[in-house]
Design brief:
Blueprint: H1 22-26, E1 71-82, E2 85-97, E3 102-106, H2 113-120, E4 128-133, E5 136-137, H3 143-153, E6 154-157, H4 169-174, H5 188-198, H6 214-226, E7 232-236, H7 244-258, E8 264-268, H8 272-275, E9 280-285, E10 288-290
Parallel strand pairs: 3-8, 3-9, 6-7, 7-8
Antiparallel strand pairs: 1-2, 1-4, 4-5, 9-10
Bound molecules: adenosine-5'-triphosphate (ATP) and magnesium ion.
């Protein structure tokens, strides 16, 4: 196994030699063995909504949720390995988010915003530190348990929509509500239709994604993210590919369907004006979250 300390493998001049922070001191050595690359297309939790949280397929019942706030991140780090070269992206990110808060994360391209969002959404493995979601240590759970938590409680909106091209809009929105045997859960179809109506796509349910504009595809992706009534919505530059008018519409829907429903929202954006629409603005810089 490679040594995944942040500066391992870098030329001497690029190694960071700053004193160890409290996070570095508290980090268990074995946590640094966990580094894996982000999958090209992060998996979206489907087919598990029908699983109860104490289902035997999980190996062990999920620990009960608890604790204050919806997200507590402590000393989170992520270093990618490219061959023998280490690419430290996140160092010592700590963050607490109370339920119902709407926060934005800004930062330069490559600063690690998507990496952080994937880690918050149980879509990747950190190199160190912890992410507690509703009091559960996400990366201490088994992969199956984490999938259930993600599918039941977290909605992810991707910058490039990630709709399934061969499914129509309604089917895409229904994806998170597929049960283990391939059917959809009771009431899911009506909920999908009402979500499509809420994002202004009632008349497009039978269209394929390629027949929709970018803004319409993102609204469909937003409906899909909300299908399972998630407690936490993570949105990765959801308006990054849209013109300002269309982006404004998508944001209006996003805020209405999250803030209006007392959901917690973490919104990654390049746009400071958009960021300021949130309760709190945090900036990722040099692998650390500032303003947290
Ligand atoms: N799977 C990977 N393997 C190696 N390096 C990666 C991987 N994924 C991301 N990186 C690197 O990690 C850094 C942070 O990437 P990330 O996508 O999180 O940035 P970002 O802030 O979301 O950027 P953008 O604003 O352009 O979307 C970049 O330098 C990127 O090249
Ligand atoms: Mg990104």
């Amino acid at each position: 196994m490679n040594n995944l300390t942040p500066s391992a493998g870098l030329p001497a001049g690029l190694r960071h030699s700053s004193p160890r922070t409290p996070c570095e001191n508290s980090r268990p050595a074995e946590n640094n063995q966990n580094c894996r690359p982000v999958p090209t297309l992060p998996e979206v939790g489907i087919t598990v909504r029908g699983l109860a949280e104490n289902n035997s397929a999980l190996g062990a019942p999920l620990p009960a949720p608890g604790g204050a706030g919806i997200l507590q991140v402590e000393c989170l780090s992520k270093t990618y390995m490219l061959g023998r070269a280490a690419i430290p992206v996140l160092r010592d990110v700590s963050l607490a988010v109370p339920a119902g808060e709407v926060i934005s994360i800004i930062g330069a391209s490559g600063s690690g915003k998507s990496t952080l969002l994937h880690l918050l959404g149980a879509l990747d493995q950190p190199s160190g530190g912890t992410v507690r979601f509703q009091g559960r240590d996400l990366y201490a759970l088994s992969a199956a348990q984490r999938t259930v938590v993600r599918a039941r409680h977290i909605g992810f909106v991707f910058q490039f929509y990630h709709l399934m091209p061969e499914l129509d809009v309604l089917e895409n929105v229904l994806l998170p509500a597929l049960s283990g045997n391939g059917g959809v859960l009771a009431g899911a179809r009506a909920r999908a239709q009402s979500l499509l109506a809420a994002v202004g796509l009632a008349g497009r349910a039978k269209h394929l994604p390629m027949e929709l504009s970018g803004g319409e595809q993102q609204r469909a992706a937003l409906a899909r993210a909300l299908m399972n009534q998630p407690d936490l919505v993570l949105a990765d530059e959801p308006t990054g590919n849209l013109d300002s008018v269309t982006g404004g519409q998508v944001l209006d829907f996003l805020f209405a369907l999250t803030r209006g429903q007392r959901r917690t929202l973490v919104l990654v954006t390049h746009n400071i004006a958009v960021a300021r629409l949130c309760d709190r603005v945090l900036e990722l810089k040099d692998g650390r979250l500032q303003g947290a």
